[in-house]
Amino acid sequence: MPSGLDMQRGRRSSTIRDVAALAGVSKSTASRAVLGQGGVSPENLDKVMHAIEQLDFVPNQLARSLNASSSTILGLFLRHTRSPFYAHLAGAFEESAGERGYQVMSLASGDQPDEANLRSLNLMADLHTAGLAVAAPNVDPRTIRQVASRVPLVLVGQMGQPSNPGVPYIVPDPRAAGTLIDHVVSLGHRSIALLALSPEQSPTQWARISWMRDELEHQGLLSGFERIEVDQDLTEVVGALHTAGVTAILCPSDWVAFDAIAAAGRLGLSVPEDISITGYDGVPPFDHEVFGLTTYRIPVDAMAAAAVKLLDDRLHDNHVDAGGILLRGELIVGRTTGPVPARSIAGRI
Question: Is the pLDDT of residue 322 over 80?
Fold first, then answer.
């Protein structure tokens, strides 16, 4: 009998070469996609996932786990792998999982339509992962509910979903961003602006920024609230805020903070002598002193460890509290914030 013959179906079992051929990609690309190793474009990943479904393909390593009494594989579904945050989270999750005897299979959404997210998550469930950690706030709550009914699931880096109250989550405490407000206020700033991406782009980020907006309004310090787009040129925004008398801009991420600093430079403004700017995330390499960015470092390692522990507790029938785990990070004071400019103090006298 030929090697690889499926006794029950009377045909040869599919191989990774079959998947690659059907998907129209190289064998190495198909292997990376199956193993969740990254470096695969969203388009090719989608092709490979379709081919796997059509061929009913199960990788050898995963097939062996199906014969075990219990799986030792945890799934990690990321929004994408381009940003330092998600790359750092993936590494920390793998390390924490390894300490508890688990292996990790990871896939990335790449901001694909939710139909593709559902296929990817169902594939991970079909391969008998013991549990799933979803670090992709763009996934529709209905998809989360459907997949969570099949396999233990936790949300990482995003707030809980009202429609899925039974799904635990781990997220940075949005109120901890108040340390950024306290910092610039301690430097004398009384005219502060917030930049924000849309809630559709980043719902968790929006929850934090909304809390900061309410806090600044309560203290009578909010002088500007600007909705921005990803990769937007911020020259006009920063210029308008500076002209309006804003002395400090709090940005929703380190990437946006760097864009704002670059915009200030194009306007001939000095940071922090003319205007102070802060970021948020504080993950390597942007937390390095060579950048000098004042930011808030979110506890990525602690988030990953908490997610693995939650999954492990659920798999061993240990008690897991409903709701979420809020974790606090730390303020990093760099060179991008300083005392309120003298002209602004003179203007208030």
Answer: no
